[in-house]
Amino acid sequence: MHDTRSSTRDSDAIEVLARSSDRYLSRLDGIDADQWSFHPAAGAWSPSEITEHAVFALRSFGGLLRERLEPLAEPVALADVEIPYFFYGGDEDPSTGAPTGKWTDIERARASFTGATDAIVEWHAACPADLRAVGFADAHYGLLDGTQWILFAAAHTARHRAQLVQVQHHADYPG
Hints:
Strand content: 5-15%
Number of helices: 5
Order of helices and strands: HHHEHEEH
Helix content: 40-55%
Radius of gyration: 17 Å
């Protein structure tokens, strides 16, 4: 069931995700080992940990898209343009996808990030479903259709790109 407040086409949502992912990866260009492991404060995530979490999330979104979408019995209440607002406060359940701190190889992390994004793009290319007609109701975020879940993945990625920017602009950031 399609809500007229949702106007983004599936292909546009995939493009938004691809651009968000490219912009995220651009923040890792030229990063060295000291920068990769830099913690701006006690308990704050390093670029390594931010990236580990972002990859976990992208893989989770990919799994949701592949395995959890069901035909919609009711229209979604959320407009596409509202999705980024979920992340404006930076609030997120810290136990979901908490990093292990073991991602030391920058290039492997970049490849994992790219692979997680590519898996969603490839799934979309092969998906015959109308993503506006299927969805999943998350306990925290509510009912989103398939296209909105792709936009959600893009917004989440952008939120953590902003977190990387904050770390990289910290006064004590190496370099």
